[in-house]
Design a protein that fits this description.
Radius of gyration: 18 Å
Distance between the termini: 22 Å
Order of helices and strands: EEEHEEHEHHHEHEHEE
Oligomer: single chain
Structural class: alpha/beta
Number of helices: 7
Number of domains: 1
Helix content: 25-40%
CATH topology: Rossmann fold
Length: 220
């Protein structure tokens, strides 16, 4: 599903280059549950953003489902991201001005899914994540755990091939975090590819493989 070769990311200031990722080679098979670990500043989130096509590498090649991501236009990158990838952030990234229902509906509007089907998908997610009673509330009216349940539901509603999760349980209680990880495990069991960034060894245990980053390198 994913193949990265020599992925490097740096920021330039005059003649000085600050490297975030260095010569990353990574293969991810369809249906894998991969965990990326490492200390703060190791480049984990940057790698996840490049995988999710929200950032571009300075050099190297990235192939996603056979497509040469490093050669695609911004428009095509946006289309790939929209149709194949679901993102779960630690800080939720819900739209403050929209209700829970509207937050869930938004990705379906981007995909131009028709009204009746949209309503059915949103209702299914509200029911699945136990947030039916919260559908008319705004994010600031929800607890952290409730917001993260909405964020995960929003990531899943388009049935993406790949879920990218950046510290998905970082702001949650242990019980809420466990519920999110159990959801990921179930999804992976049904064939969804998952890549998570975490500091938690417990969360990592839900996956099937771990890679560790240090100073932008994959540790051998």
């Amino acid at each position: 599903m994913i193949k990265m070769q020599g992925i490097t990311k740096y920021y330039s200031s005059g003649i000085i280059k600050t490297f975030v990722l260095r010569e990353i080679d990574l293969d991810v098979e369809e249906g894998e549950f991969l965990t990326v670990m490492g200390p703060s500043g190791a480049g984990k989130s940057t790698l996840l953003y490049i995988l999710g096509m929200l950032d571009t590498p300075s050099s190297g090649e990235y192939f996603f489902c056979g497509q040469e991501v490093h050669r695609l236009s911004e428009k095509r990158l946006s289309e790939l991201h929209k149709h194949y990838i679901g993102f779960v952030f630690q800080s939720y990234h819900l739209i403050d001005e929209l209700t829970v229902y509207e937050n869930l509906e938004t990705p379906l509007l981007y995909k131009k899914i028709k009204g009746a089907e949209r309503k059915g998908k949103v209702c299914d997610m509200l029911d699945r994540f136990g947030i039916v009673g919260k559908k008319d509330l705004f994010p600031n009216q929800l607890s952290g755990g409730q917001q993260q349940r909405v964020a995960v539901a929003r990531a899943l509603i388009t049935e993406p091939k790949l879920i990218l999760a950046d510290e998905p349980t970082g702001n949650l209680s242990s019980k809420e975090g466990l519920a999110i990880m159990e959801t990921f495990k179930e999804l992976n069991g049904n064939g969804t590819t998952i890549i998570q960034v975490t500091h938690s060894e417990k969360n990592a245990s839900f996956g099937k493989r771990i890679i560790r980053l240090l100073d932008g390198w994959i540790e051998k």
